[in-house]
Amino acid sequence: xxxxxAEVGRRHIERWLxxxxxxxxxxxxxxxxxxxLGHARPFDLDAVASAWHDLADRATRSTADLIVTAVAALxxxxxxxxxxxxxxxxxxxxxxxxxxxxxxxxxxxTAALDRRVQAQYHGLRITLLWPRLWLLIxxxxxxxxxxxRERVWxxxxxxxxGALYLVLIPVWWPAALIATVTWALAIVTAxxxxxxxxxxxxxxxxxxxxxxxxxxxxxxxDGALPPDAVAQINDRLHK
Length: 239
What we know:
By secondary structure, the protein is an all-alpha fold. It starts with a helix and ends with a helix. Helix 3 (63-95) crosses helix 6 (139-166), helix 4 packs parallel to helix 7 and helix 6 packs antiparallel against helix 7. It contains nine helices and no strands. It has helices spanning 2-34, 45-59, 63-95, 105-120, 126-136, 139-166, 175-207, 209-216, 227-237.
């Protein structure tokens, strides 16, 4: 048990570093740098080098100065990470809203999957079945599906970081380009991740027909649940 808890703790720390702290530190570094550049000289590398040289000199004058600089950077990174996380939650909520919403393309893909499964398996409702099937599949399969769903969240988080760069536009116009490119990459990543996630969920239904039948006490006919069994399963799950 101690080993499991240690592994969970290690992964949590790694995730915190990769999705919040490191991108946050990059944002803080960029924000601090561009405020020294402004609109007039947005790509002045000599000014960048000089500004960072001065910062290093001030931070290394004493241990106290170094600690203050480090704490300020980490605090800024954490606050930026929390802000990006908040924006990502809003974006993900928009993606998973009612299928009729223009932004809810993840919900629309899920609804399309539900229709395909109904057509193939005599009306079986994946939206009702999936939470139960999730508990029945193996750990390796569950981890694979979870990783695909996690990539959707990471894409939403990427849009959050893109949104933060909008704050820098009043002092450094190229921040608009960074935000635009970040959003574009996030959308491409999200669509690929959703495609992978939906395909994996559909695959779980395809290869676990016998698992579903055994769990609900039915027998497969020609490798699939018969219509009367599907109707009973849907009725039991629709609460």
